[in-house]
Description:
Blueprint: E1 6-10, H1 14-25, E2 34-39, H2 48-63, E3 69-74, H3 81-93, E4 98-103, E5 106-108, H4 112-122, E6 129-133, E7 147-150, E8 158-161, H5 162-165, H6 172-176, H7 181-187, H8 195-203, H9 211-220, E9 224-228, E10 233-235, H10 270-297
Parallel strand pairs: 1-2, 1-4, 2-3, 6-9
Antiparallel strand pairs: 4-8, 5-10, 6-8, 7-9
Helix pairs in contact: 1-2
Protein name: Glycosyl transferase
Keywords: Transferase
GO molecular function, one term: transferase activity
Amino acid sequence: MTFAPIALFVYNRPDHTLKTLEALKANPEVAHSEIFIFADGPKAGADEKTKLAIQSTKALVMDFEIGARKELIFSDQNKGLANSIIEGVSRILKSHGRIIVLEDDIVVAPGFLKFMNEALELYQNEDKVWHIGAYMPDLKRNDLPPLALVQQMQCWGWATWANRWEQFNPSSADLLSKFDGRLKKQFDYEGSFNFHRMLRNQLAGKRDSWAIRWYATIFLAGGLCLNPSRSITENIGQDGSGQHSFRTTNYDVDRLDRLAVEKIPLEENKEVRQAMVKYYWKAKLKAIPQYIMYLLFGRR
């Protein structure tokens, strides 16, 4: 098996980072893997509490023993999550043909690395497959196939190849210019999630997301993403502690420990897509009161 390098992006949450590292270390394949840990710096005007949390996170990753080789890439200045990931992934893929990517709040299953490495190997020559995802929201379905190809990119534990990533388009304006009404509806999963608005907000400077631009790049190119129908990662950062989230339980999952990789038809699985549409509609309705509370009272 070829072991892809792992990129981990951290910032100011040492407790989350420790759980992420411990879960990753429970994967046997990590002993054969290079790991690159990118730690962002403080924003201008950051308070002492934030600076201390950033320093604590950097100290943690310096001391934590993991991987066949560990490389630390620390920034003194704040790049922001989007720039950090775009630059970091691009940097590693200049010298490696593939990559596995995690953020500091993604807790992986013991079989995560085996799944990701096997999927990267099995689908590397299938040009229609651009992205391997490890997360899937809880679709409340036990009759779905274990693996599916879908249009939407899931970023809570993911992998890709250099020849796909080199086609990443960071220009929100250029991406938006390629949408018509039909594509917008398809991109938004029949209106169940406001992905297109996220892309417009990116252009307007109201958000800072690499992920929505990567999803749009894949979507407009006609690419597909390989995902489990039940997640093998969980996001522990939806607790209001992150820079880009408010507290919600909408994305909690009953995670699998392991998942086998196999070849499946190179077309979108319509049944899984419809299950995702149904899930997003329910989550949208559930999130409205939570989001109003967040706007009124902040993180609680």
